[in-house]
Write a structure and sequence with these properties.
With 248 residues, the chain is mainly alpha-helical. 65% of the residues lie in helices and 0% in strands. The longest helix has 27 residues, at 53-79. The mean pLDDT is 92.
Length: 248
């Protein structure tokens, strides 16, 4: 049976992809730790995480790694003939967590709460990527490139409101703690999906043993949603406790 078409019962654990996802998690936690230090006034000199290219560039790279990994994961799920009920169970977890992120951010940042962040984006992108991968696999690459290019070519004030900015054709970036619209980011996921399909066909990169030193990353990479939801409450709670201790 070809490597790009495997029954779910025999699908292997793709440790290299897990490790890539784990690396993205470590980078994300480190980035948010610096952000939280800055928010609590513990980073000297103070940093501008919203406009400084050093920080905004890291954010782009982190989100790109997560969406590439998600696209690659969908390629492996399709190759393993994952059925829709299992997909929707995982999707529901992402959607519920997206709602919790909105509620939590509205409490902490009422003026810049997250209405369409990375989890909201993934909740919309994952079904689209899966459907395209099933129905029109030959269109993955051109659609991915088109999605990346379209926001640079088309913008309109209609898409600047919170009700419409999820599409991504905005004239300016909204004030929000996280913003990952459908365009251009679904393009990253589609490119990850088609890249993984090519790697499966050619038996490249995804195959082979993972070096022992990278095993912790692979373990961490199996729990991306859990770490995403827990790391900020833990970091912020620790910094609040530190601030309380220093205040006495």
């Amino acid at each position: 049976m070809p490597a790009d078409h495997m029954p779910a019962a025999t699908a292997p654990r793709w440790e290299r992809l897990d490790a890539l996802r784990g690396a993205a998690i470590v980078w994300m936690v480190a980035f948010h730790f610096c952000f939280d230090l800055n928010t609590f006034g513990l980073l000297s000199p103070p940093q501008d995480f919203y406009r400084d290219g050093f920080w905004t560039g890291q954010r782009v790279c982190i989100v790109s790694l997560f969406l590439l990994s998600a696209g690659m994961g969908q390629a492996l799920a399709l190759a393993a003939q994952q059925r829709w009920p299992r997909f929707w169970r995982r999707w529901a977890q992402v959607a519920v967590c997206a709602l919790l992120v909105s509620l939590g951010s509205a409490w902490m940042f009422p003026r810049s709460w997250i209405s369409f962040g990375v989890l909201h984006g993934m909740a919309l992108m994952l079904p689209l990527a899966r459907l395209i991968g099933l129905r029109w696999p030959g269109a993955l690459w051109p659609l991915g490139v088109a999605a990346l290019a379209l926001p640079w070519l088309v913008q309109h004030p209609f898409f600047d409101s919170r009700w419409t900015n999820w599409l991504g054709l905005v004239t300016h970036k909204p004030v929000a703690e996280d913003y990952v619209p459908l365009l251009p980011w679904v393009g990253v996921m589609l490119i990850g999906l088609t890249a993984a399909q090519a790697l499966l066909r050619r038996r490249r990169w995804l195959f082979g043993a993972l070096p022992a030193i990278l095993q912790p990353l692979a373990v961490l990479g199996r729990w991306p949603l859990t770490v995403y939801m827990l790391h900020q409450p833990v970091l912020i709670g620790a910094l609040m406790a530190l601030a309380a201790i220093r205040g006495h």
